[in-house]
Amino acid sequence: MNDLVFIGPPGAGKGTQAQRLVSKLSVPQISTGDMLRAARKAGTELGRKADEFMSRGALVPDEVVIGLVEERLELPDARTGFVLDGFPRTVPQAEALDRLLGRMGRGIAHVILLEVPDELIIERITGRRVGESSGRIYHIKYDPPPSPDRGEGGERLLVRDDDREEVVRPRQVAYAAQTAPLVAYYATKGLLRRVDGVGSVDEVTSAIFRSIGVV
Ligand code: ADP
Ligand code: AMP
Q1: Residue 215 above 80 pLDDT?
Q2: Closest-lying ligand 1 atom to the alpha carbon of residue 12
Q3: Could you say which ligand is closest to the alpha carbon of residue 123?
Q4: Which residue of 134, 139, 159, 209 is surrounded by the most CB atoms within 10 Å?
Q5: Strand 192-196's sheet: what is its strand order?
Q6: What distance in angstroms lies between residue 54's CA and the mean position of ligand 2's atoms?
Q7: Strand pairing category for 128-131 and 2-7
Q8: Which residues are catalytic?
Q9: Contact by Cβ (8 Å): 28, 22
Q10: What is the mean pLDDT of residues 68-95?
Q11: Residue 192: phi, psi to the nearest 5?
């Protein structure tokens, strides 16, 4: 079963690698960050509530994201697998995911931890650009778009507004305090695959495939 989870600090490359993995495995990418940004853009009540937390680099409350993921995992395209990117981010979220998958008679195959030293993270985050309609992730230097302000097909490129330095710091603090405990949580279950996230995007993709036994 291709039930995969990415964890790692903000800017480690989870979204980039998840986008590549899903095209190879033909399963959906489920990114709670993307879902919350879409809700915010649509101006829904959930989006407004989430923005109070996202704009200051804090985690959105567990019950909000757990509800989103529960609904999403029940859709038919997730039946043969999924790549979760950005969820779970707290131990209660991980426990909720275990319960949900257990009820569905399935379970996580691998949790891929992308390890990237702090000194590389800021450069990755400040150079991040996202395609306005496709959501494709670029980096101005390391994964450059066709032109500095346009992505594939001419779409506009956006800078995420939580990628400002003053918001990045609290996101890193939230990772250390609330998400890092998941490393031990999944290691104990024998699911953790540590992958060196340093190197080109292609090199990291190959390392991930090796770690999950796909060649
Ligand atoms: P996350 O989802 O973990 O926050 P992203 O996948 O959005 O991280 O990546 C953050 C930034 O780093 C993006 O601009 C992306 O293009 C870039 N990036 C991702 N992987 C690599 C890599 N292996 N080398 C250099 N830059 C990378
Ligand atoms: P990301 O796109 O994964 O970097 O997430 C961007 C922001 O969305 C985070 O800084 C949080 O505010 C929020 N968010 C995304 N996923 C979660 C989650 N699983 N739990 C809580 N907050 C989340």
Answers
A1: no
A2: 3
A3: 1
A4: 139
A5: 29-31, 81-85, 2-7, 110-115, 192-196
A6: 7
A7: unpaired
A8: 14, 89, 128, 160, 171
A9: yes
A10: 97
A11: -80, 130
**Could you tell me the strand order of the sheet in which 157-158 lies?**
137-139, 128-131, 157-158
Does residue 32 line the site of ligand 2, with CB under 6 A? yes
Over the stretch 101-134, which tens digit does the pLDDT of each residue have? 999 999 999 999 999 999 999 999 999 999 999 9
73 and 30 in contact (C-beta within 8 Å)? yes
The dihedrals phi and psi of 29, each to the nearest 5 degrees, come to -90, 130
Residue 171 CA, ligand 2 centroid: distance in Å:
9
- Quote the CA–CA distance of 191 and 167 in Å, as a whole number: 31
CA distances from 12 to 96, 99, 101, 113, 116 (A): 24, 27, 26, 9, 6
Ligand 2 near 9 CB (within 6 A): no
Q: Is the CB of 122 under 6 A from ligand 1?
A: no
Distances (CA, A) of 36 to 24, 44, 182, 203: 25, 10, 21, 30
Q: Whose CA is closest to atom 12 on ligand 1?
A: 124
Q: Residue whose CA is closest, atom 10 of ligand 1? A: 11
Cα(90)–Cα(182) distance, rounded to whole angstroms?
A: 7
Residues 28-40, mean pLDDT to the nearest whole number: 97
Ligand 2 atom 1 nearest Cα: 33
